[in-house]
Amino acid sequence: MVHKTGVRNTLLTGVGFAAWLAYILACAPSFSPDDTKVLFPSIDSKTGATTLAMYDRGAKTTRTLLVPRDSEQTSHVGESHDGMSLASAWSPDGQQAIALWAESKDDLRVAVIPIAGREPIRLLDVPDVEDASAVIMRGPAIAAGRLFVPTKDGFVRVDLATGARTSKDVGDLLIQAQGDAVYYTRGVPEGAQKAQNGPAKWEFGRVDPETLALKPTFQSEEKVTGDAFFAVNRDGSRLAVAQGGEDSWSILVFDGPRVVRRIAVGTKQSKIGTYNLVWSPDGRLLYSTYRKEVENGPNEFGVAELPADGAAPRYTPLLFADINKDDGGVFEVALSHDGRTLAAASTYLGFSSGKSRMKPEDLALYLVDLSRPDRRVTKISIAAPQTSPKPAGK
């Protein structure tokens, strides 16, 4: 089901031990602005195709927002993605859900879905994307009602209300949004060609959302393996990226150009790997999903709390599954806006290539209560498909 994405050499300069942590297609859940609802990937029990679902935390009900269809049928509920993997987000007022999926390697489809259902779903096309599946994996970069997407020559800004597109040719980069701010990382142009032969500088900065000009913040020669994921805290003062070597796997925390912390998360012996990163509201913690290889047994999957002050990480197991080694990154984490709840969905773990052995009851949306010392976990079940799940993009 999953796609392995191409790894760019503008940032990726050291792999080693971390090679077993493949960069793969996934998508994290998404909390509504008031945290009362959660978007997550679910499954159509009849066709086995993925759907976009919404969980109402107050009513404790789940509703399907995007319904799959085959090439000869149109669903009466809404437009579909034909089994494609989805990324999701919310409009600032919480009245619309936004879904993204890859129509092909370089074509992105966007659906704007009214939650009240009184208006039709609007579909937008974003062509000439650098890697549409990678956009899904990293999640949508949306700021002030506009979507920012890397393209083959730079990036494009898409107005979600009008569909208007504005392109900016600046070369290869990665984009992430935080509130109304847009951030980027990229290889320094004059050093990018040296990445295959040794360290190359890379740059972190902001994108002016109006003029689309790049505003560099700092450059670094630190080797990182985090071109799939980088995380910026809420005020934009700290950046977190992953670093892998021959014997260890760490998260680097930058305060400006200076590395202020190296958070150790895995070694050859422990074989714990983290995936997407999310900052706590106060900037003291990083959250991630993790996978721990268990000798002679199914792998452990859960959520990790990684203190930025160097204190010991806390790992909360959620499920155990025996799946293909390359498919662990399909389990991503999201944090509620109030910082009290983590969410992760095991939907795509059930789609793992090869023979996936996961208990049916572990196919679920997981909500972890961070306000409780015991980190109480709530599971919202996802119905197992009656047929084999459709591979994405088929």
Give short descriptive properties of this protein:
394 residues, mainly beta, 1 helix, 2% helix, disordered C terminus
Topology:
Layout: E1 30-31, E2 37-43, E3 50-56, E4 61-66, E5 87-90, E6 96-104, E7 107-114, E8 122-126, H1 132-138, E9 141-143, E10 146-150, E11 154-159, E12 165-169, E13 174-178, E14 181-187, E15 202-207, E16 214-220, E17 230-232, E18 238-244, E19 248-255, E20 258-267, E21 272-279, E22 285-292, E23 299-307, E24 314-322, E25 333-335, E26 341-345, E27 357-358, E28 364-369, E29 377-381
Antiparallel strand pairs: 1-2, 2-3, 3-4, 5-6, 6-7, 7-8, 9-10, 10-11, 11-12, 13-14, 14-15, 15-16, 17-18, 18-19, 19-20, 21-22, 22-23, 23-24, 24-27, 25-26, 26-28, 28-29
Describe this structure in words.
The protein has 394 residues and is mainly β. The chain has a single domain, classed as Methylamine Dehydrogenase, Chain H, CATH 2.130.10. The protein contains one helix and 29 strands. The strands form seven sheets. Strands 21-22-23-24-27 form a five-stranded antiparallel beta sheet, with no helix packed on it. A four-stranded antiparallel beta sheet has the order 1-2-3-4, with no helix packed on it. A four-stranded antiparallel beta sheet has the order 5-6-7-8, covered by helices on one side. The N terminus and C terminus are likely disordered.
